[in-house]
Each structure stands twice: as structure tokens, then as C-alpha cells.
Design goal:
This protein has two domains: about 180 residues, NAD(P)-binding Rossmann-like Domain (Rossmann fold), CATH 3.40.50.720; about 170 residues, Rossmann fold, CATH 3.40.50. Helix content is about 35%, strand content about 15%. The protein has 13 helices and 15 strands. Strands 3-2-1-4-5-6-14-15 form an eight-stranded mixed β-sheet, sandwiched between helices. A seven-stranded mixed β-sheet has the order 9-8-7-10-11-13-12, sandwiched between helices. The radius of gyration is 21 Å and the shape is globular. Bound molecules: 1,4-dihydronicotinamide adenine dinucleotide, pyruvic acid and magnesium ion.
Length: about 375
């Protein structure tokens, strides 16, 4: 198969869809890989490293989209990229379609076969292609929150761990999955007073077993969230209903009643955010203030630590890339129900129920059109 890897163009996005060693796996199996010039340059992968792995370097994204049967990316395609997609071309990347109608409409129009990393599932009920980036973003969320609490960023001027004789900051994490668990690990490590809220008792049980008395766990209700958020110095938003727009668990009224100078890091912003006052920001200008509360809502957090993130992401995606390249999308999807869960759009039809519901569009079960 001909596989194309364009350079990412989102603000401060230095990740790349494939590292040179992954390219080599593909070329050793007889596939052709085309990579855009300088696609990995931001994180130390030279064009020569890709050539040595057997890839061909092309000067522009247009050439990559024109030649490739499968496009492998990291972030959702921006409008200029969407315009280059072709009927029956495979697009394998993060999509986050539920909060993004313009992208959904463009992908439907393209006729492409769009498989979203974030809705691919596994046998243990996990999301194996979201997990590595949630680990990164969960860990980063506490760094970002610690900065937001500094006076110069609009925060209350608090150190997360406090010091002897001064109490630590209160960190409340909404959602105890991958993001929440990794946020808890770092916040506990920094000495903060940490509480995780989840609606899954199993998630709370797992967290309790992992962190013991260092972590408080609370069952998620609107009342519990309100009480905790009003006492919090830092709130981390890490909830997810796979494929769907994030539920707005923190209302603008709650935000208005939060302590002045407190901070919210809404990691769930890629699915629209779980805080009513959240709107997506960029690494260039990551925070803004509403009602004296600092909001950090960067939708591509792992892009800031792009080298770590690219290795972590590509280790997870490579087996699926190899499978799609070897079998083609029809056979690969028909033989792997977990990969099939990743199929969001195909030949002008919406095949992800949650995305269809989010936009009030027609849902077509993938098995009826494959
Ligand atoms: N901004 C960024 O750069 C990044 C954002 N993310 C996003 O972070 C979010 C979380 O991802 P993961 O942790 O991997 O998901 P996950 O599926 O591992 O965890 C989500 C948790 O939310 C819980 N939950 C759902 N509804 C809830 C409710 N009403 N109250 C409390 N808890 C609730 C679930 O029970 C689950 O434990 C996703 O939207 C993901 O796309 C992930 C990576 C990077
Ligand atoms: C998952 C996601 O949105 C990211 O890694 O940027
Ligand atoms: Mg206030």
C-alpha cells in the first residue's frame, strides 16, 4: 500500500504520524511510505532518517494527499487538509468529530474512509490509541495547572504541595480514567491534596487500590461536583463518553462561585470540554480568565512534549497501520471489531452513533456498507 505522512500544521504541533523505525517496519513488508519534507524535523527526525528507513520525501502535503491510499496523521485534518482528501482514501488519525460540525461535514463530503484513533477499542474496555496521549496530557495537566496558579498567570499564588506549616493546594480531578489517573499520580507526587470524582465505582475502586490514603475518591453527582469545585484551587477536567461530546459537568454558575485565582485545566476540551466556560486554546496562548478563574484548554496538549508523545502514540498505532496496509480497510475492519469501532465516516455516511447523535445527523451502521 502507498502510505502518506504529511507534516502536522496545527498550532505548535510537532508530533508526526510515524517515526522512522515504524516506516522501516512498513517498507520491510513491501509497502511504500511517502513523508512530507521536514515532517519530523521539530523532534529530531531528519528527512535523511526517513529516507534511510525506505521512505520517499515529498515537498508538499498536496503531493502526499495525491499519491497516498492511506494518510497517517496525529491531529484532526484542518480545512486545507480536508479539501485534499479523496474518495476511498483511508484517513487514520485523531478526529474528535462530536464537537466539530464543519469537520464532520467536510469528511462526509470527501468520501474518504475516516478511522479515528480515539474510538478504537480493546478487549479490556479501554481505548488503546487514546490512552498514550491521555497519559501524557494527564501528567501535563498538573504542570499546566501549577503554572496557572502562579500570580503572573492570574492564579491565586499557590504552590501545589504547600510547604511545612502551610497547607497544600486542593486539586479536584473530574474523571478517573487515563487522564485522571495520571493527573492524580503527579499531583500526589507534588504533595497536593487530591480528590478524584468518577461515576464508575470500578474506576474509584481501582484508584483506591493504586493510591490508598493519598487520594480521596468521590462518586460523581452534580451536588458532589459543585461542593468540591467551590473548595478547589485547581480543577482538572478528564471525563469522557467515547465518541460523544463531553458532558458539561461544571456550569458557568459554578465557575462564577469558584475562588478568585483558582484554575481549571479542561483536558476534555478536544471533545468540547466538560466546563461550560471552556473554549479551545493553543500552546501559543494557552490560558484565559473568566470570573477570576484561569482556564487552560489546549486541545493538543501532548504536542508540547512532541518527542515523548510521538514515540508513545506510534507504538500504539503501528500494529493497526500494519494491519490496514496489509489487508486493506475492508478486510481489516471486518476482521477486527475494535478497529471497526474507530470507523467514524465512510463514503459519505456517519458510522459512529455518538457523533451522529451529537449533530442530529443520520447514523449508518458500518457493517451495512462495508
Ligand atoms: N486536550 C488534550 O490534548 C487531550 C485530551 N484528551 C481527552 O481527555 C479526555 C479523557 O480521556 P481518558 O482519560 O483517556 O478517558 P477514559 O475513558 O480513560 O476516562 C474517562 C473517565 O470519565 C468518567 N466519566 C464519564 N462521565 C462522567 C461523569 N458524569 N462524572 C464523572 N466521571 C465521568 C468515566 O467513567 C471514565 O473513568 C478525553 O476527552 C480525551 O480525548 C486526551 C489526551 C490529550
Ligand atoms: C488526544 C488528543 O487530542 C491529542 O493527543 O492531541
Ligand atoms: Mg469567582
Amino acid at each position: 500500500m502507498k502510505i502518506g505522512v504529511p507534516k502536522e500544521i496545527k498550532n505548535h504541533e510537532y508530533r508526526v504520524g510515524m517515526v522512522p523505525s515504524a516506516v522501516k517496519e512498513l517498507t520491510l513488508q513491501g509497502h511504500q511510505v511517502f513523508i512530507e519534507q521536514n515532517a519530523g524535523a521539530g523532534i529530531g527526525f531528519s528527512d535523511q532518517a526517513y529516507i534511510d528507513a525506505g521512505a520517499e520525501v515529498l515537498a508538499t502535503a498536496a503531493e502526499i494527499f495525491a499519491i497516498a491510499e492511506m494518510i497517517v496523521k496525529v491531529k484532526e485534518p484542518l480545512a486545507v487538509e480536508r479539501a485534499m482528501l479523496k474518495h476511498d482514501q483511508i484517513l487514520f488519525t485523531y478526529l474528535h468529530l462530536a464537537p466539530d460540525l464543519p469537520q464532520t461535514e467536510d469528511l462526509l463530503k470527501s468520501g474518504a474512509v475516516c478511522i479515528a484513533y480515539e474510538t478504537v477499542t480493546d478487549d479490556r474496555g479501554g481505548l488503546p490509541l487514546l490512552a498514550p496521549m491521555s497519559e501524557v496530557a494527564g501528567r501535563m495537566s498538573i504542570q499546566a495547572g501549577a503554572m496557572a496558579l502562579e500570580k503572573s498567570h492570574g492564579g491565586r499564588g499557590m504552590l501545589l504541595g504547600g510547604v511545612p506549616g502551610v497547607a497544600p493546594a486542593k486539586v479536584v480531578i473530574i474523571g478517573g480514567g487515563m487522564v485522571g489517573t495520571n493527573a492524580a499520580q503527579i499531583a500526589i507526587g507534588m504533595g497536593a491534596d487530591v480528590t478524584v470524582v468518577d461515576r464508575s465505582i470500578d474506576a474509584l475502586r481501582r484508584l483506591n487500590a493504586q493510591f490508598g490514603a493519598a487520594l480521596k475518591t468521590v462518586y460523581s453527582t452534580a451536588d458532589a461536583i459543585e461542593k468540591l469545585v467551590l473548595e478547589a484551587d485547581l480543577v482538572i477536567g478528564g471525563v469522557l463518553i467515547p465518541g460523544a461530546a463531553a458532558p458539561k459537568l461544571i456550569t458557568k454558575e459554578m465557575v462564577a462561585k469558584m475562588k478568585p485565582g483558582s484554575a481549571i485545566v479542561d483536558v476534555a476540551i478536544d471533545q468540547g470540554g466538560c466546563v461550560e466556560t471552556s473554549k479551545a486554546t493553543t500552546h501559543q496562548d494557552p490560558t484565559y480568565i473568566v470570573d477570576d478563574v484561569v482556564h487552560y484548554c489546549v486541545a493538543n496538549m501532548p504536542g508540547a512534549v512532541a518527542r515523548t508523545s510521538t514515540f508513545a502514540l506510534n507504538s500504539a498505532t503501528l500494529p493497526y497501520i500494519l494491519k490496514l496496509a496489509k489487508l486493506g480497510y475492508k478486510e481489516a475492519l471486518m476482521h477486527d471489531r475494535h478497529l471497526l469501532n474507530g470507523l467514524n465516516v465512510m463514503h459519505g455516511k456517519l458510522t459512529c452513533r455518538e457523533v451522529a447523535e451529537a449533530h442530529g445527523l443520520e447514523y449508518t451502521p458500518a457493517t451495512t456498507i462495508l
